[in-house]
Amino acid sequence: MTDLLNKHSFVELGARQRARALLDSGTFRELIDPFQRVMSPWLSRQGVVPQADDGVVIAKGSIAGLPVVIAAIEGNFQGGSLGEVGGAKIAGALELAAEDNRKGIETRAVLLLETGGVRLQEANLGLAAIADIHAAIVDLRQYQPVIGVVAGSVGCFGGMSIAAGLCSYLVVTREARLGLNGPQVIEQEAGLEEYDSRDRPFIWSLTGGEQRFNSGLADRYVADDVAQIQQTVTALLQQGVPAQPRSRQAEYYLARLNALDATPQIEPATVRALYQGERS
Amino acid sequence: MRGLQWFNALSTGATAVEGLPASLKVADGVLGGQPVRFIAVVTDPDNRFPRARNGEVGLLEGWGLAKAVDDAIVRGDQRPIIAIVDVPSQAYGRREEALGIHQALAAAADSYARARLAGYPVIGLLVGKAMSGAFLAHGYQANRLIALRDPGVMVHAMGKASAARVTLRSVEELEALAASVPPMAYDIDSFASLGLLWETLSVSQIEQPTADDVARVGDCLLKAIRDVDGRDLNGRLGASNRAASSHVRQLLREQW
Question: Taking the complete model, does pTM exceed 0.90, yes or no?
Answer without folding.
Answer: yes
